[in-house]
Amino acid sequence: MLRIDDEKLGKILIDQGLISEKDLAKAVEEQNRRGLVEKPLGTFLSETGYVTEQNVLKALGIQFNLAVMDLKGMRVDPAVLKLVPEETARRFKVLPLYLVEKELTVCIADPTHIYTIDILANQTRCQIQPVLASERDILDALDYNYRNQAQPQSQVEEALLTSTDVKRLEEAGKEISIIRTVDGILLRAIQEGASDIHIESGKDKLSVRFRVDGILKEYDSFSPRQQPAIISRIKIMSQLDISERYKPQDGRIKLQMAEREIDVRVSTLPTYFGEKVVLRLLDQQKVQLNLEELELSPPHLNLLKNLIVQPYGLILVTGPTGSGKSTTLYSALNTIKSEEKNIVTVEDPVEYQIPLINQVQVNLKKDLTFANALRSILRQDPNVIMIGEIRDPETGQIATEAALTGHLVFSTLHTNDAPSSLIRLTEMGIEPFLLAPSLLGIVAQRLARKICAECKEFYIPRKPELDRLGIPEPAAEMKFARGKGCPACKGSGYKGRIAIHEILMADETIRNLIAERAPLASIRAYAAQTGFINMRVDGIRKIVKGLTTLEEVLRVTREL
Questions:
Q1: For 13, phi and psi rounded to 5 degrees?
Q2: pTM exceeds 0.70 for this model
Q3: Predicted confidence (pLDDT) per residue in 328-338, tens digit
Q4: Could you tell me the strand order of the sheet in which 313-318 lies?
């Protein structure tokens, strides 16, 4: 006879398609036969291999309406750890995570142990908000956190709190609890793999949205009364003027999370209901990538490798904002950097710091524009120059002249595809007779969401899907993939992103077409004849490899 909680769990596992009725009955019979009826059903099922531990957690989360947490690499603020002594945490197999006002979020393994929550509430004098993780992950996290409790570095660099911050907060009349609130937002965004945090002031609430894998979703909201304190806290952290609410401001925050260093670019904007803040999270680990880690298709990888080893010329990377251009550029520089080369960049802003590379930050207030910085860089004996973006004719002119005079020049443009970049440059006023001999190649790219590896399944595509991609009836063995949705991907079926590319090589014919001011159609036609693989085709190849989906490729290449 199953306990009520176990009976509910079993039903959820069946409803979610995680176990069959036959296997569940067989498992219960085995549990009774072995005299393990006191052991929770979920524990028994995972230990005996009927379902995975992650699937049991997923079902428990549904049953008790609790979030499931990934504790790997999580470092908890020592001030929060002190609320629950290590002996208590190990006895009840719990991990305190963070404190917001008087609500303490605690990770537990067994949500049926109500008395554990009551004991913690009495000991901490806090309202307990439970979340779920596996017992093994909790024990590992206890070792990781309590063992490191004596170290001064906390989850987010001493909880992002310094004595100067405290003084300024007190002077501004803010409560220390707001610090915990902002830390909680940052921590969760990092755990979710967000690239941006949007904090938006509205009439009825302060909304917090995360951009994860290119998609914006609301993750939390607060009372409008908390808006001034939360915005002020972020301004203090990023060295902005907390008294200035009617002008846009830009700042920067440095965070240390476990072994990861994360830069946060902060931008404020006055709106009708108050200031909006956007924080861009820049994980310094990403800058350590080389070209092999970008998951380019083999033909594109070979082309790009060939481009970046040329002694001089212009290489452009193009695409909309958020398409991964900076990652591609930094990966290229990482691949070619050495002590024998003088590599200089001019950026607005400098997103990642790279060893062996001299990086210049544009400063319009000091008249340090892209063009002015480039002129100075050319007097610094550079081998390689990277320009964050060609924004104006003057910068474009200097870049092409530098490429013609023995320098390898990298830069970016905002265009839809590789061929149209040629028209964009000539429209900016760059003379074709300069552009044609200087250009080596153009890389265009988009980022598509990647299918979650934890819940990937393969299927035979139907004819309407193939028709949308322009693929004829396939052989019987052709399969596509999709994500079913699981806790790892928050039910979306996607986790992470993958780039799709096209690379236009500037051979002699392309250079002649540029010099002759040939129309875009002629350039496209010639490229197609010479084996040019456009982004749509590259995306289709990655669909067939099971890396992304039809919907994603069509979404990011819609305008092509």
A1: -60, -40
A2: no
A3: 999 999 999 99
A4: 357-361, 343-347, 384-387, 408-413, 313-318, 439-451, 494-505
